[in-house]
Amino acid sequence: MRRYLVLGILCSLLLLLVIAVFNVLANPYGYFPVPTWEGFNAKALGFNHRLRLAKALAIDKVRPTTVIIGNSRAEAGYDPAHPGFSERPAYNLAMGGAGIGEARRYLLETLATGRVRHIVIALDFTMFDAGLWNQGSRADNALLTDEEGNPGDATKAWRRLATVLLAGDTLSDSWWSITHQRRLVALYLPSGLRDDAADLDQVRREGGHRQASLNAEAAFLSSTLKDVQSSAFRQGYRETLDQLRAIAVLARERNIRLTLLINPIHARHTYLFETAGLWPAYERWKRDVAELTREGAELWDFSAVGTCTAEPLPAPDDAATAMRWYREIAHFRRALGDEVLNRVLLGLPSKACGDFGHPLIGGNLDRIFFDQRQALAAWVASHPLDVAEIDGQARRFRRR
Questions:
Q1: Which residue, 265, 375, 383, 263, is CA-closest to 329?
Q2: What is the rounded CA–CA span in Å between residue 225 and residue 273?
Q3: 51-62 helix and 156-166 helix, angle to the nearest 10 degrees
Q4: Got the DSSP string for 311-332?
Q5: pTM value > 0.85
Q6: What pLDDT, in 10s, does the model give residues 83-116?
Q7: Residues 333-352 as b or e (16 or more Cβ within 10 Å = b)
């Protein structure tokens, strides 16, 4: 009996060893320093399934000195390889669906490495929605630090490593990563940047940029920022501002450069705020962010309607024409992100986008907001088809 028990234990250990070796060689999260083979593990496709774990592991591997945080707009829009980043390595830690609370947790994990010299926070109003402020706890299993950035118990790193080596989810991700190496799926580069080739293919399958934009607008109107007068929104909004303020204080105390960017949303998305009755709250949000970051931080606003942010959408029946600056109205492309970084990091005016991007400083807010309202009004007057489409959707979702 004892012999069979020992044999069973040995077989189990051998199976675990085989699983661990397979997961290391498949390397679905790009974490292990193993040789890469084209068609087998050259692409770390496990990011598609467990993005938050994969980016937590990347913090430990890359140990960046510049970190970009934000949501899905930032993860595909801002390239850590941009020449304006002087503190390297730089890493794009942005993640789809992330709010400020979750972004702060990952930032604290990065700060625990002791190497961070520059923080870039990519902001938009939707990150302050009521449902996002308390999402930081979902990072608990992936990160090694607690909610205050303090190291967890000594066993946490070993438990995470065991998960990466032996968990069934990892085994599934390894197999999926291997079998999709030659397929067009979402790809995260070693810098954390999401390549948008697969996303553009999805846009084509949806019927082109206009239809994809209509879908994005419907998603916004159906569920985002629905009642900014409610107590739930006000509580979440205050909590989110406090989380952002805590980041600003931390950066100032540690002498870390802090750059905040209000993302270059499309003119149609800007009009969504207007038609859904959100404009007063939208301007108040910008004032609040400017107030809490006025000491020791840079705040730039790229959301105004302008040459690039008003890029025309293809005709309703045109699924083939590719847009230069946007994937759809909710997501700008890396080319426009480069224009943002050129302006902020290199001080270069945009030849393509004209008067693009302004620092938000207390004394100039009224003038900037007046100019932004005027620019939106001019766009509304000259784009009746776009306005009619958006107004129709707003009525359908009872947001107008």
A1: 265
A2: 9
A3: 120
A4: PPPPPTT--SPPPSSEEETTEE
A5: yes
A6: 999 999 999 999 999 999 999 999 999 999 999 9
A7: bbebbbbbbbbbbeeeebee
